Amino acid sequence: MILKQATILVIDDDVDVLTALRLLLKPLVKEVVIEKNPSNIGAQIDKKSFDLIILDMNFNGLVNTGNEGIFWLNKIKKLKPQTDVVLITAYADIDLAIRALKEGASDFLVKPWKNEKIINTISTLLKARKSNATNKNPQTISTNTIIGESDAIKDVFLKLKKVAPTDANVLILGENGTGKDLIARALHDNSNRKDKPFVKVDVGALTSSLFESELFGYKKGAFTDAKEDRTGRFEAANGGTLFLDEIGNITLGQQVRLLTVLQNRLVTPLGSNQEIPIDIRLICATNLEPDVLANEQKFRKDLIYRINTVDIMMPPLRDRGTDITLLAKHFIGVYAEKYNKSQFTLDTGFISKLKKHDFPGNVRELQYVLERAVIMTDGNVLKPEDLVFSSIERQTSKTATSTTMNLDSIEKNAILTVLEKNKGNVSKSAKELGITRAALYRRLDKYEL
What we know:
Blueprint: E1 7-11, H1 15-25, E2 31-35, H2 41-47, E3 52-56, H3 67-79, E4 84-89, H4 94-102, E5 107-110, H5 115-136, H6 141-144, H7 151-163, E6 170-173, H8 180-189, E7 198-202, H9 208-216, E8 217-218, E9 230-231, H10 233-236, E10 241-245, H11 252-264, E11 266-267, E12 276-277, E13 281-286, H12 290-293, H13 301-307, E14 310-313, H14 323-338, E15 345-346, H15 348-356, H16 362-376, E16 381-382, H17 391-421, H18 426-433, H19 437-446
Parallel strand pairs: 1-2, 1-3, 3-4, 4-5, 6-13, 6-14, 7-10, 10-13, 15-16
Antiparallel strand pairs: 8-9, 11-12
Helix pairs in contact: 14-16, 17-18, 18-19
């Protein structure tokens, strides 16, 4: 079954070898790609994700040292470190085999090969790969994957690294769909409490009557439907992390009750007089702007100080530049596997259309758009017409774009003018624009300058 799902690249300058391996593997795997010229390895890897690569050790050399194979092995490992590479040669040399394995090869085969040996080798490597992936990341992409290389997301990673090992309370800010829940999970997974419970509560969705019973629990008979004792979320998270999502939506009365518990570190279940001590690390999230939270008619200042030892701002997708391409490739790969489709290549127009969209729904909207594209397309090349943006977000996008597109144009032209004036010197340009170098790099990313 694992073999049937595999995509394999074979690289050899001998056409007979390529033909033989293609004929052998084609009925057994999802796809076999053959390549005669090793210089095209980078292009092949960029176009498609391969589960395994079979690589010849010698290419048109007068002396068969195997150095060419080692060179291209290192190239592959630099581009795709996790890809399994099986080296194959006509010259059995134990020293060369050991060297290849040390350089990162997964296995080493000798020509002429036995078909059973090649099939068994590939099957074993693919099974090990799947087992490792399962052990390392048992959860789905919606719970613990944070992908990005932009300066904006690197700032988030830097804060994560510093804050996660502490017990500091954290407030995560950001628009809907930016991935605030992923940050909360990452804080827990990288903390000293990682082996203890992680409990999430969407407090914004709790009615006044449910707020206390959900958070603090209740005793049998505390109210009409209380037919047995129930442990509250605070107590369930004891020793671990409690994540209160949409904290900005709770009422002033609920804020008072929450503040009392956080100050005293004690909860009293409904229908009980007994206080229960709690030891939790608190993480909260909201999509409200900081100035709204600062309004004491909406949110108590003493509670803000209590929950906001450190704040982390999740950037909107439109400010993350090339992360859109990285995320797109990731989600397309995930949904291609989920819906049993072959790996897709992306038309340049497809990426261009993605980058031009404002994504008011952020990463969540990107996921929705790409899942639909994968489901609906018939070929294995995704084109601009395969992108249909969410009707839910479209109206928001139109109203936002009518204002922001002009501002974006002004900002982009200003940056170009200053860069040209300073002959591309980023430090001088940033100083003249009145922003930091990091902020200027983010804008260069955003406008692809």
